[in-house]
Design brief:
This protein is an alpha+beta fold. It folds into two domains: 62 residues, Arc Repressor Mutant, subunit A; 76 residues, no CATH class. Helices cover 32% and strands 27% of the residues. It has five helices and eight strands; from the N terminus they run E-H-H-E-H-E-E-E-E-E-H-E-H. The strands form three sheets. It has a four-stranded mixed beta sheet. Strands 1-2 form a two-stranded antiparallel ribbon. Strands 3-4 form a two-stranded antiparallel sheet. Strand 5 and strand 6 form a beta hairpin. Helix 1 packs across helix 2. It is elongated and about 50 Å long. It starts with 13 loop residues before the first strand and ends in a 9-residue tail after the last helix. Bound molecules: zinc ion.
């Protein structure tokens, strides 16, 4: 993952997507991706504007996040800006597709929400580490994918 220097941004300026892309010599799609990844922007009128201070903070956070490695029993906390353990080791698996999802827990340090992406296949491994609860939607997907689980219907 590329490392963008947050200090290239002037905090008292606003940037359109095109301008922000030019500062970093990246494609507009890269900046659009940052917006989807949580970079705040003003969307009341076009062109959308990104506050320099927000862009700088976003890239700083990203840098820290990229640098820090989470152990298997840790998840990255955006508020603490460091890997943290979920409170009581309790996490919920929220599926985003039939094979992938994320684990969501409460940071044991700041009580914020912490997340980690996980594949359905890795859940077994994670349940050895965490107390994983699987949402009802996922159970439904599991049952339809593995009909033999319902073998008590004769
Ligand atoms: Zn935290």
């Amino acid at each position: 993952m590329a490392n963008y220097n947050p200090n290239l941004v002037k905090i008292h300026r606003n940037y359109s997507i095109e301008e922000a892309a030019r500062v970093y010599g990246v494609h507009k799609n890269t900046v659009s991706h940052w917006l989807r990844a949580g970079l705040p922007y003003l969307n009341e009128r076009k062109p959308y504007l990104i506050l320099g201070a927000d862009l700088k903070q976003f890239l700083k956070d990203r840098r820290i996040k990229n640098k820090q490695h989470c152990d298997p029993d840790q998840m990255f906390c955006l508020r603490c800006k460091s890997p943290q353990k979920p409170a009581e080791g309790f996490v919920e698996y929220l599926p985003t597709s039939s094979t992938k999802g994320r684990l969501s827990g409460i940071c044991s340090t700041c009580d914020g929400i912490i997340n980690k992406y996980a594949s359905l296949a890795s859940l077994e491994r994670y349940s050895a580490i965490f107390d994983v609860s699987v949402s009802a939607a996922q159970k439904h997907i599991n049952n339809s994918a593995k009909p033999f689980l319902n073998s008590d219907t004769r």
